[in-house]
Amino acid sequence: MYEQLFTEHKIGKVTSPNRLVFEPMGNYYAELDGSVSERDIAFYAERAKGGCGIVMTEVASVNSKTGRGNLRNLCTDDDKFIPGYQKMADSVHKYGSLLFVELYHPGCQGIAPINGGSMASPSGQESDLIHMPSHEMTKEEINSTVNDFVEGAVRMQKAGVDGVVLHAAHGYLLCEFISTYTNHRTDEYGGSIENRVRIIKEIVEGIREKCGDYPIIIRFSADEYMREIGKEGGMVLDDAVQMAKLFESYGVDALDVSAGNYETMNWAWEPTGFDEGWKMVNGATIAKEVNIPVIACSVIRTPQGAVDFLNKGVAFVGSARQFFADPYWGEKVKNGREKEIRKCISCLNCMESLMAADEDNGMRCQCTVNVEGGEECTYLPLKNNGDGRKVVILGAGPAGLEAARVAAERGFKPVIIEKTSEIGGQLNLANKPPKKDKITWLIDYYQAMIDKYDIEVRLNTEATAELIKSEAPYKVINAIGSSPVLPKAIPGLDQDYIITPPDVLFGKTQLTGKKVCVVGSGMTGIETAEFLQEMGNEIELYEMADDIGPGLFFQNLIDVMGRLAPGGCKFFAKHQLMSVSEHEAVFKNLESKEEVKAVYDNIVISLGTRSNTITDDIAKAFPDMISIGDALKSGRIRHAIEGGYKAAVEL
Ligand SMILES: Cc1cc2nc3c(=O)[nH]c(=O)nc-3n(C[C@H](O)[C@H](O)[C@H](O)COP(=O)(O)O)c2cc1C
C-alpha cells in the first residue's frame, strides 16, 4: 500500500534501500572523550534494523576543544575516533542501510565553559536562549574551521561511513553564517546570499579535493520563523530556495530541509501543538527547484503522511523522534502492520532529558513511549522465557498496558483487570485538551498490542483477592493509578461546585459561559484551563509557585501558553489558595502577603494526585505484588511506561 516508501534512491554514488531517514538526534550517549560508545552503536543499528534506509548520527563536533555541544558529544577531530565509526558503520551496513555522520560546530549556541570560554560565531551575537559569551570569528578562525569540517569528512571516509551531513540548520555555526539574523559581517562572508554561503562552499570544495565524490548532504533551516517570535531577519523560504540552487551548483549530493534555531525551537522540534505535515511546504518548494534529492521532516508519524510528502516532491522522508519512538516503523509499514506502529506523541521528553543530561544525574536522551530507546544495549534482546505463566495486572493505564505488552512479548500470559469500561487510564484524560489528540495514538497502540498478543482484558471488573487467586498467577502487578488530591487543609473543598480535572475532562461536569478558577498550573491544570476556555468559559489560573507552569518543560509551556493567553485567560502566580466559601475563593498573595478574594461559578482543584490504595485483602493475599506507575508514585507518562516495562522485564 505504501510501496513508494520502499523504493531505492541514490544520494550521489550511494543507494538507499528506501526513502526513510533517521534524522540526527543529539543523545548524550558518546564516551566522555567524544568517541563512539557501544550504546551509540546499538542505538543506530537498531534504527537500521527496523527499516531506516539512511541513518544519520547526532551532531558530531569537528573540534572537540572549541565546538562541543555537551560532554558526551561525538567528535571527529582525531584519528583515534575512526575505529568507533568503523564499528558503527559496519553495524548499520549489516542491515543494508547507509550511515551518514553529521558534522557540526555549535557556534554561539555552544556551551562556552566547556569550549574555551567564548563561542565562535560570524558576528559575536549571543543566543537569546542560552546567552553564552561569543566572539566574531577572524578569517583565520574561519579558515581553520573550514579545515576542521574537511578533516572530519576525511576521517569519516576512512572509517567507511557512507557520507557526511554538513549541519547548517537550527542556529549552529554554519546556520549562523547563512542567516541574516546572526550574520552581520561586511566582509566576503556576510551580506549577499553568495557571501553568506561562502563558508559552506569552501567546506564542500575542501571535501571534494580530499575525498573526491564522497557523498555530502547539506542540512539547513529553510525558515527560521523569527517573525513568529516578533523578531526580524533570519532564514526565509525565498532565500533558502536560492541557497539550495547554489548548494546544488557546488556539487553536493542532497539537501536535508529543516527549520528553526534555538530561539525558535518550537518550529525546529515541535511540541504537540504542531500537526503532521505543517511545514511540508519548505521541503516541497525546495524539491521543485533543484535536481538533487531532498530529504525533509515535518512531524511525519503516519505512513500516509510520509507518502503525501513524497508526492509533494521530496525524495526522502525524515524523522528523528518517530524512529526514536519506534525504530521498527519501516518494517511494520512494509509488512502491512501499520496498526502496530508506536507513534511519537511530541511530548518532547527527548529534548527535555537531553538538556537535563549530565554526569551527576546519569540522565541521557530518553523517550516516553520507548523505554528501550538509547538502552538497546541494556535490554535487547528480550528474554522469551515466560512459558505461558500467568501474570495478573490490575489496571489498564499506561503502566499496566506496558507491563502486559512486554510480559506477553516475553511469553507470559498477562490478564488485565480494569475497573472502568475502557483501556488507557489517565491517557483518556490527557488526550482531551486541545491539540492533545496524539495521546490517542498511544491508546490505539496498546489496543493493537492487546490484539496482537491476544491479551485478556477484563473491563468493568473490580479486582478482589478471590478473583486474582482464581487465576493462580505467577505474579501480580499493581497498576491501579492515582486520583486527584483535594487537600483537607484548605477549608471548603467539599462543595459541589469544586471539581477536579477528571470531572472536567471525562465530561462529568460540563461547563460553558461560566467564570471558572483553576488552582494549580502543572500540565494538568494548565491544559484543563485550556479545555475549559475552549468550551467558552472565562478562566483565571492560580499558582502558588513563582511562575506559571512550574516543572513544565519550557517548549511545552510556550506551546500551551500560545493558545491559552490569547484566549483571555488571566494568570496569577505566587497565590496560595487558603479557603473557599459560598463560591468565593480566598488566596494569599505570597509576595505582598495580602488577601485576594474572587467569586467563581466553579473552582477546579488541580493540585496533583495521590496513589490509589489496594485493598487490604489483596495486599495480604499477594505480599510480593509489584506496584508500578502512579500506583507507586504519581508521575508523568514516561514514569508509568518505564515502571511497566521494567516490571515485565524483571519477571
Ligand atoms: C532530542 C532532539 C535532538 C536533536 N538533535 C539533532 C541533531 O543532533 N542534529 C540535527 O540536525 N537535528 C537534531 N534534532 C532535530 C531532528 O533531527 C528533527 O529535525 C526534529 O526532531 C523534527 O523532526 P521529527 O519531529 O520528525 O523528529 C533533534 C531533535 C530532538 C527532538
The CATH topology of the largest domain: TIM Barrel
The total number of structural domains is 3
> Any idea what the CATH architecture of the largest domain is?
Alpha-Beta Barrel
Approximate shape? globular
Quote the average pLDDT: 97
Quick summary:
The protein has 651 residues and is an alpha/beta fold.
What would you note in describing this structure?
By secondary structure, the protein is α/β, with parallel strands linked by helices. The chain has 3 domains: 3-378, TIM Barrel (Alpha-Beta Barrel); 383-483 and 611-649, NAD(P)-binding Rossmann-like Domain (Rossmann fold, 3-Layer(aba) Sandwich), CATH 3.40.50; 486-607, 3-Layer(bba) Sandwich (FAD/NAD(P)-binding domain), CATH 3.50.50.60. It contains 22 helices and 28 strands. The longest helix is centred in the N-terminal third of the chain and has 20 residues, at 139-158. It starts with 8 loop residues before the first strand and ends with a helix. The mean pLDDT is 97.
List the helices and strands and how they pair.
Blueprint lengths: L8 E3 L2 E3 L3 E3 L15 H12 L4 E8 L12 E2 L6 H12 L4 E7 L14 E3 L12 E3 L2 H20 L4 E6 L4 H6 L14 H4 L1 H14 L4 E8 L13 H13 L4 E6 L20 H10 L4 E3 L6 H9 L4 E4 L1 H5 L3 H6 L14 H8 L19 H4 L10 E5 L3 H12 L3 E5 L9 H4 L7 H16 L2 E3 L6 H6 L4 E4 L3 E3 L13 E2 L1 H5 L9 E5 L3 H12 L3 E5 L11 H11 L5 E3 L2 E7 L2 E6 L5 E5 L2 E4 L3 E3 L4 H6 L4 E2 L9 H13 L2
Parallel strand pairs: 3-4, 3-13, 4-5, 4-6, 6-9, 7-8, 9-10, 10-11, 11-12, 12-13, 14-15, 14-17, 15-16, 17-28, 19-26, 20-21, 20-26, 21-22
Antiparallel strand pairs: 1-2, 18-27, 23-24, 24-25
Helix pairs in contact: 1-2, 3-6, 7-8, 14-16, 14-22, 19-20
The site of flavin mononucleotide has 24 residues, from strand 4, helix 10 and helix 12.
